[in-house]
Amino acid sequence: MLGENGAGKTVLMNILYGMYRPDQGRIFVYGKETKIDSSAAAIKLGIGMVHQHFMLVPSLTVAENIVLGREPTKHRCLLDVGRIENHIKALSDRYKLGVDPKTVAHDLPVGLQQRVEILKALFRGAEILILDEPTSVLTPQEVESLFGAIRTLRQQGKSVIFISHKLKEVCKICDRITVLKRGKVVGTVDSDKTNSDELAEMMVGRELVSAFEKEHLAPGETVLQVEGLSAFNDRKMLALKHVAFEVRGFEILGLAGVEGNGQTELVEVLTGLRKAKTGEISLDGTLITAASPHDRIQKGLANVPEDRQKDGLILDFSVQENLILGQHDISPFATHWSTLNLREISDYARDLIQEYSIKTQNRNTVARYLSGGTQQRVVVAREFSRKPKFIIACQPTRGLDVGATEYVRRKLVEMRDHGCAILLISADLDEILALSDRIAVIYEGRIVAIRERAGTNELDLGLLMTGGKCDQ
Amino acid sequence: MTNEDSAHTIRSRIVAVVSQVIAVGIAFLVGAIVLLATGHSPIAAYGAVLSGAFGDLYAVGQTLTQATPIIFTAIAFLFSFKAGLFNIGGEGQLLIGGFLAAFVGISFTGLPIYIHLPLALLAGAAGGALWGFIPAILKAKLDAHEVITTMMLSYVALYVTSYMVNFPFKAPGWVAQTVPIAPSAELPRVLHSTQLSGSIFLGLIVVALAAYVLQRTTLGYEIRAIGLNSAAARSNGINIQRGMILSLVISGAIAGLGGAGEILGVHHRYIDGFSPGYGWDGLAVALIGGLNPFGTVLAAILVGALRSGGLVMNRVTGVPLDIVYILQALVVLFAAAPHAIRYLSNKGVAITRVLEWLLAKMRAALERVKHIGRRSDA
Known about the structure:
The complex is a heterodimer.
Chain A: E1 2-3, H1 9-16, E2 27-29, E3 32-34, H2 39-44, E4 47-50, H3 62-67, E5 73-74, E6 78-79, H4 82-94, H5 110-123, E7 128-132, H6 140-155, E8 159-163, H7 167-173, E9 176-181, E10 184-190, H8 196-204, E11 222-232, E12 238-248, E13 251-256, H9 263-271, E14 278-283, E15 286-287, H10 293-298, E16 301-304, H11 308-312, H12 319-323, H13 342-355, H14 372-384, E17 390-394, H15 402-417, E18 421-426, H16 429-435, E19 438-443, E20 446-452, H17 458-465
Parallel strand pairs in A: 1-9, 4-7, 7-8, 13-18, 13-19, 16-17, 17-18
Antiparallel strand pairs in A: 2-3, 5-6, 9-10, 11-12, 11-14, 14-15, 19-20
Helix pairs in contact in A: 14-15
Chain B: H1 7-37, H2 42-54, H3 57-81, H4 90-107, H5 113-142, H6 146-166, H7 199-216, H8 218-228, H9 230-235, H10 240-267, H11 278-288, H12 293-317, H13 322-345, H14 349-377
């Protein structure tokens, strides 16, 4: 099931799984018309769903998670998970899922947590498995092994509905592909009789520029310099270990890495939200290691955060109010008396809405009601239009559809062309390769390699990201 | 408001107002059932409340007198709530403010009113501000939860002021109260033969100022940003500790000013236990008022009317006064509780949907009525 964000894939699947009720239309399971009015009914029909966000209880074991809601008991009141563990183990072996029922859920990497969700569905007797964007949280290696598992499931006679907006994956794993656009089925094609150009065309209704074109520019002077930077994470463990790099003007430095290798801490230290244990950061020649987030913003730091809804926007503020966040207390938006200059603010908002084509009813619309792509445009508009010298962009296109992704990428390149130094942090190698001038790889809190973009390929990076040693 | 305000914003505002009005209506309906069940006529009882609260100028004066301190404490609660802080210590801030105002009122004599009165009011605000600053600094530096600290400090204030008027500052006689304040510190009465004082105007000015600060100043912007999403506020360079401290200090100052208004305007001396729980009423009233400064004034007047009208109802119809407290509790239950839950969980979608659905139904019914009307015309 292929389609852009907001095409209706998840809604459709939620209907199949009994979470939403359809207004009209009929559903047939094994040729029989059925009514699915609850997820219990869906499970009874053999439909299982693996959500995009896993729903595991972190402190319970795999087996306990799987039986949650229908716990096996002995003498009617004592929990008897042991009895079921063998059954789960057998199930895991049969579908080559490689899950140990006795492990505690929070000790599992994301990829295996997903397996547990699959196992849960199988345990409940699922014949039809719905996987909602299953690869969005996985590393390239984990994706490969998920595909292996899906193939095994297929061989054993299960049906899998694989939802994605990634062309490559759909082509690779699916037998038939149904494309959804704005809530309508565009068509269903056999995957061996189609190609990614055709699919992209069906999906967005226009030819896609797959390769990202950008001018080759000579890098300028160093804008951001980081030396010997170490920092703790929230659990007081060393998350950054003597990190050193520089980002120059007219340059995008891509920082590739599997999530959770110190990227979050790095961003927080750079933006001033987390204290550095050792090391120095200088921006445009001045030391900012001890500067407040506020001062760093005034000195020319911009940040497109990873979680725009949590760190980027105030969802219950209007578009206008969000657009001045961080500049609300300086001229021209604030007067001498520290009151807000509403005229300047609304003029500014109106300009930005136009310049960045922010699809909003008007500047007073509450940000919560905007689509994900539009919300990101608000963040990008705010951060880029205050003429920053250095931009941190963390997973800037995560969860965005093709159109919005292209827009954000083009804007990033545009900022580079105007002389900005940009640090692009992403787990998506396509993105890193498409945009970066140089590429650094972070692994377990260390920068393990910094290379020119030319002559770097996906395989090398993938190995470095996972601690491989291809060049040592 | 500009014409660019989206239909959505306006609609959600209407929904907010209508939902509070409906809630009050439901509370009165349930109250009527209680009245019937206890063998009283709801019509007679409500009629008595209404005439007792608004029947003549004197009644209106008494209603507004009751509403005045609650306006202060409600705005105080609202102001810190906008920063995401639950200041439930309005009671203590009001007591300290009241006592310090009385202290200044007693201590100086021979000052002209335009110096003495502002000084006494200022002392009240300062006392409340101090009582807000203590939990604020504890929150900012030690991450002590403000619900605990503000509540505990309320008891400290209660016993400290009680000690003061029972011992060092006790006036001769049986009652635990101070000597009267100097006339130059009195807030003038504004309605003959009622206790309504200039404090009501002070309260309305505070409401307008609070609304202005929250909506039109950088401080208010920061306070709202912190309250709605402190992570994003922090990421975008807002000093969260400063915003929290300021909002609690201002909140305390407002409550303290309310206390000063009561002492200087109504009692003219500090009387132990002069507040029957205005601080706690303020919390409920802010919620009934939909956490909007102007809604809060209306809600405070509603509660004031119940209080003053209730006395008349009791006298005229013999319905026990307790029914008024039941009514007040019901209003809080229907109007405030869902609102608080909605605001706190930040998941207002469900309840808004229900209300929007209700609105749509009402609108459809209205159309139908109009339609029938038109048909019968033809």
